[in-house]
Amino acid sequence: MPGRPVAEVRGLTVKYNRIVALDNVDLDIYEGRVLIIGPNGSGKTTLLKTLVGLIRPSRGLVRVLGLDPLRHPGMLYERIIFVRDSEDIPLPIKVSTHVNLLKSIYGEDKVEEGLDILRLRGHLNKRFSELSKGYRRRLIMLEALVADRDLILLDEPFTGLDSDSRAVISEALEHIRGNLVVSSHIPLNIKFNQLIVIESGKVAYSGEFREGIAQNYLRCA
Hints:
Elements: E1 5-16, E2 19-30, E3 33-37, H1 44-51, E4 59-64, H2 73-77, E5 80-83, H3 95-106, H4 108-118, H5 133-146, E6 151-155, H6 163-174, E7 179-183, E8 194-199, E9 202-208, H7 211-215
Parallel strand pairs: 3-7, 3-8, 5-6, 6-7
Antiparallel strand pairs: 1-2, 1-4, 8-9
Helix pairs in contact: 3-4, 4-5, 5-6
């Protein structure tokens, strides 16, 4: 697999009380496009949250873009974006207000292009609470699309979405130029360089993307 690691994990263990979510994991995540798969509850989301510093490991070493996520969160968050399977935009906020904020940060031209890619232009006058789940996810994806960060991490971007929103978000992911790490149990219509399989808190496979392996874990929903 060509390229350098964007994330390095050594001896990573994460426990929730007596439950071991990640068990002595050693892993390199390389430049390019990486898909993380595995059964529900296998540790995929825990791994992503640990990489971005939202979870403190019980033990082990974690480096993302050469930075310790717990010691240097500010420096790290200037270089990454983490899109979770949750809604972080306040429900009363108007779409146009959020869009204008992104324009002030990333530039009007980029955001205008992103609106077209995600097909959001007809929803600018709505509040976030008035959007369907699919359009909420599209709006949350907008910053990841326009920010030009070194690393984008997505946790289950397709969960609960209809086929139209899945297609639009898949197209949007093709426009992301930075490194991309996606955790998913639903197929994404994009090409990946690296495949990581997590089972019962351990790495069952890490290497070149192989369709045959991926199909054992991905399902349409």
